[in-house]
Predict the 3D structure of the following.
Amino acid sequence: MSVQVFASQKVPIDIARDWVLWEYGPSFDVRSIAPKKSSIGEIFSVDAELTETIRDNKANENFAFRTKILDAATIEFNKEQHKILGPRYSDLSKNIRVKIQTIQRSLEKDVLKAENKNFGNLILAKQMFTPIRRLLVQIKRNKSAEYDQFRDYEKYLNLLTLSGYIGREHDSIVPTSKFVQLFKKTKNSSDFEAYLLGYLLAEYFDYIIDEINVRQIVPYARLTASYYRPIKAAGKLLWLSSSDLSNSYSTTYGKIRSEYFDSYLDELTDNRILNREDDRIFGNEGTYKFISDRDYFQASSYV
């Protein structure tokens, strides 16, 4: 905990604001958590406001946008000693990043939903979800699959059961009507797998990441969300440089090695999740419209 003493006749919230300005700088504000009090004084909430600048390389305009992070920290005013107790700046910064990542997860899920078939194609190209793909091949070929052959992949089976695509009949895994309908709608097996895997990823992202522990897809979702975060604040599609996109990623998730960034971006553009012309990256209008009426951050922008 960081401690700063202020000998003052000011009211507690003004003392708290002075302390926050001294310890953290001008990008933070203090709110009273009425009627939140401690045994020694009062507790206040600290809000953070991050300002970033990004360039639209098509319109040749710079956009600055502010992102407000509520409840980034709490600080406590000791009324007897007239001092403030609060986290050190380094700890506050870590907490802000965790909060941004938690909020950003909602945006990640929404871009997965908007681009579900394209993400399904990326999964196929990366050969992820191999147990599910093996099961799909068997069901399409034999109309069912033997449970014993897949009992080691119980979490994958649970995922497909939760999604309503398979069921159990005695010792067999069988397709449901939902499975059959999707298969009839799609052009071929690859198309069917892309739609199904993209749907599973979009609808059960947390389960796939946290329970099955398939994390290879995470950087792709994060990089796509890192494009749409400033776009959401700007209120329109922007053409970003790769360096601006990398900076947007780093603000939320930490630094990314350039070779990884380039590889992820290549695969996202190969699968039309993002688009690239020369060094300018731009998104898809349908995805922007999908996220445009959703609230993630308290964000505003100005030219």
DSSP finds twelve helices and twelve strands in the chain. The first strand starts at residue 2 and ends at 5. Residues 129-210 form a domain with the Arc Repressor Mutant, subunit A fold (CATH 1.10.10).
